[in-house]
Amino acid sequence: MNLLIKNIKQLVTVSAAGKRFKAGPEMNDLGIVENATVLIENGRISWTGRTSDFEQTVPDSIDTLDAEGLVALPGFVDSHTHALFAGTRENEFALRSAGKSYAEIASAGGGILSTVAAVRAATKKELKKNARKHLDGMLRSGTTTVEIKSGYGLNEPDEIKMMDAINELADEQLIGIAATFLGAHAVPPEYTENTGEYVQLICSRILPYLARRKALQFCDVFCDNGFFSVDQARTILEAARTLGISIKMHADQLSQIGASVLAAELGAVSADHLEKIDDAGIAALQRAGTIATVLPGVSFFLNEEYSPARKIIGAGVPLAIASDFNPGSNMSFSMPLMMTIACTQMRLTPEEAITAATLNGAAALNMSGQTGSIDPGKQADIIFYDVPNYRSIVYHYGTNFAAHIVKHGTLLDY
Ligand code: NIG
Ligand code: FE
Question: Is the distance from the beta carbon of residue 298 to the nearest atom of ligand 1 less than 6 Å?
Fold first, then answer.
């Protein structure tokens, strides 16, 4: 796919100069080019710079886009979602408005387990049909790459059904999809008295089967009180690592039991949530080069505390923002909205929020060599916004101003 895009009012490249991610003050450096041109050849970016400096000859037949008046930036990389599910949980939303907490609802048998019942009852085809609708909405709102987790099956056939659905969607959909196995998302109702046996089922059967079929890029565990302990998480994640699978963790969300320290010790690519991270956890992530993925929409939706993002950035830990889109703790996949919440509630600068939602999100998926910035050689994943300047993307919130999306060189108009 070849495409020449001219007259871009403001091109936000988030140029990485070969770096995997940006940390500390670098997160404010967006590599902005005013009045810019981008040339795409075979789905990849081959040239970027000022329109006045573009001297290459291109065939008359090349498709062109006049981006006059538009702001362009890298497609968002949403590195943490549970976008494959069945059923919805408006009832829990109402219960929370009435004062119940997410943890109280979960321990009363609702929460994740209510979605597990719906997913077990759904066919793979139904799950895919539900997800396709969400994936279309994501692409329209500027997300060009998304991670999707299993974790609502919690037994061998239903976890495999979820992983198969995610992989089939990855083959069929234009949006880029990374598949994460989260068999240890909650303790299955059948194993409340013998959780160790479920951990063994994951390690000895499900993980090796999925790894043999190359059906997963990441293995994740929800490590928290009432879910999986640090020892159980270690057992599962070491088994994944032995199979050559990269690791992620749901860490320090509801309580502080040392989950982010474990993530760092095991060399996890990211530790996610971190509402309750402490100084030891922050220092461990910094030493390990593990990405801290914060999920501002969860704190907003559950009306609970926010992760200490300023402290994390201040310590030099690379920070990513993701939506955590799921029917329980955040029923929104809008990355611009997550970025606005990160700015107003976590005090990120708009520039940091953009870096966290693009390049650093890509790094959290081991994909920053391919996407996450507008640099020659990378996939052409670019959003064009009809806004006065790039700060408007987070400032003028609640409306989608995307005018065109380019995914791997394919132009979509909205
Ligand atoms: O990331 N923390 C655990 N899991 C999800 C919630 C999933 C759900 O409630 O269905 C999360 O917030
Ligand atoms: Fe999650």
Answer: yes
